Amino acid sequence: MNYPLLDSTDPTTCLSGKISRISRITANIFRKHIKTYGLSNSQMSLLFVLSKRRDLTQKELCDILFMEKSTLNRNLKRLVDHGYVTKKDFPAFNITEVGKAHLEQAIPAWRHAMKEIRSLLLEDGEEAVDTILTKLKQSQL
Fold first, then answer.
1. How buried is residue 115: exposed, middle or buried, by Cβ count under 10 Å (0-12/13-18/19+)?
2. CA-CA distance, 49 to 64, in Å (whole number)?
3. Half-sphere exposure of 100 (CA within 13 A, CB side)
4. pLDDT tens digits, 67-117
5. What integer best gives the mean pLDDT of the chain?
6. Residue-wise pLDDT tens digits, 103-114
7. Which of 18, 23, 43, 130 could form an SS bridge with 39, CB 3.0 to 4.6 Å?
């Protein structure tokens, strides 16, 4: 059989693949640092957002974090089960005092992960990531 499209396509140029690899590499660095706190990167992001804003719905959290609803639901359930997040005012979610205390304990490890990634990216790399994120977020508005 002849596959001209397959033969003429270079998957190493795929932007989605490159961004996915960047995401996996950075997630691995964060995971290495925060694993002792029993939090995933997504759960830590949720706790950070909920620590800064109150009474957020699932839709609002999805929109803020660009997270799939199923991923959000899975992570919220774990955070609620651990007592870090409450849904007592459902449909609104809030971080609990236990969640704030746990996040407070995890922040030094998160900062170590940030320092490691910044040392790899350097200033121009971090600026490039910020630029990419800004441009992609604008397309979602």
1. exposed
2. 8
3. 9
4. 999 999 999 999 999 999 999 999 999 999 999 999 999 999 999 999 999
5. 95
6. 999 999 999 999
7. 43
Q: Are the beta carbons of 48 and 110 closer than 8 angstroms? A: no
| CB-CB contact of 100 with 49 (8 Å) | no
Q: Which residues have C-beta within 8 Å of that of residue 38, sequence separation ≥ 6? A: 82
User: What is the biggest distance separating any 2 CA atoms in the chain, rounded to whole angstroms?
Assistant: 63
86 pairs with which residues across the strands?
94
> Are the CB atoms for 106 and 37 separated by under 8 Å?
yes
Alpha helix (H) ranges present in the chain?
Answer: 4-7, 15-34, 41-52, 58-65, 69-81, 97-139
d(CA 136, CA 132): 6
Encoded tokens for 48: 């950070």
At 109, the amino acid letter reads: A
- Contact between 76 and 93 under an 8 Å Cβ cutoff? The reply is yes
